Structure formats: C-alpha cells, structure tokens
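Work Package 4 report. The design task specified in the project plan requires that, given a folded chain encoded as structure tokens, an amino acid be chosen for each position. We show below one input record used in the internal validation round.
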C-alpha cells in the first residue's frame, strides 16, 4: 500500500484527515484537553509519503512534551501511518491565546480557571471574581493555586502566557 492510511477506512492522502487523528491526543497533565484544544498542535502536513507533525511546547522545558510526542506517534501508528516525523518548534512561542474556546470551557468544567487578564480570574465553581493566590505554582508549572473569596474552594488557575 502506498502512503499513509487509516486502518479499515481506506487510503488517506489529505493531511487534514491525519490532523483529525493527531488532534485527539490528550495532554498528559490536563487530560480533559487535547493538544488541539491547548493549541500546541501547529500543523500536520505531508512531505511526499511522510506525515510531518509540528508542535509547540507551552514553555521550554515542559516535562509533558516527550509523552505528547510518544502519544502522537502511537496515534499515527494506530492509524496505519508508519512514515512520520514529529517536529518541535519554539517560534512563535506558545501563548494561552492559542487555547480554543472549547478548551477554555473544558478547563472550567474540570475545575481549572482558564487564563484571563488579571485580576478577572473567576472561580470555576461559583464564578466569583478576585480569588486569593495561595501558591504561584500549582500541580504543574503552568498553573497557580487559588482560593475563592466567596465559596472558599481551592482551585487551579491556568496562568496567562
């Protein structure tokens, strides 16, 4: 068989079909978000018969990137693609502006306040504003630990970059 294909679905010659496969990969640190929701999936293109996936880390040194690369490779292999390259680019630098509206909604539903301009951080539980920061770093370096001044619940805030 020539070129990449999806098992049981025939030949796939359009990179957008492969993008839909790669876009389902979840972020290992925030499993309610896909790498597409998060905006780190930059492109999926074909270079001849080779699929080329380009991603951007949320910050240089993000410990999840190796796992994300492995998960992308697994998704491509499951889809029947055996000739691919996963490239990481740092330019332009990732920004929280790249998180999709759907991704922001998923964060809030999961109990993580999505990035917003300070001081307009809203509690994801009661939507009150002006929470108190407890720790500059939460479970991951890209989140801060907050406490709501209204309902008193602690929550993570995805910091704006």
């Amino acid at each position: 068989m020539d070129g990449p294909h999806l098992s049981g679905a025939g030949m796939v010659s359009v990179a957008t079909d492969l993008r839909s496969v790669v876009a389902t990969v979840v972020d290992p640190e925030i499993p309610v978000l896909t790498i597409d929701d998060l905006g780190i999936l930059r492109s999926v293109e074909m270079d001849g018969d080779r699929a080329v996936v380009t991603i951007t880390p949320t910050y240089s040194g993000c410990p999840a990137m190796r796992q994300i690369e492995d998960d992308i490779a697994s998704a491509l292999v499951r889809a029947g693609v055996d000739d691919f390259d996963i490239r990481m680019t740092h330019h332009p630098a990732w920004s929280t502006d790249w998180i999709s509206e759907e991704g922001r909604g998923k964060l809030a539903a999961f109990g993580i306040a999505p990035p917003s301009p300070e001081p307009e951080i809203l509690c994801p539980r009661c939507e009150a504003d002006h929470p108190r920061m407890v720790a500059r770093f939460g479970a991951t370096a890209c989140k801060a630990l907050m406490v709501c001044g209204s309902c008193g619940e602690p929550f993570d805030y995805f910091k704006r970059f």
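The chain has four helices and nine strands. Validation will be extended to a larger panel in the next phase.
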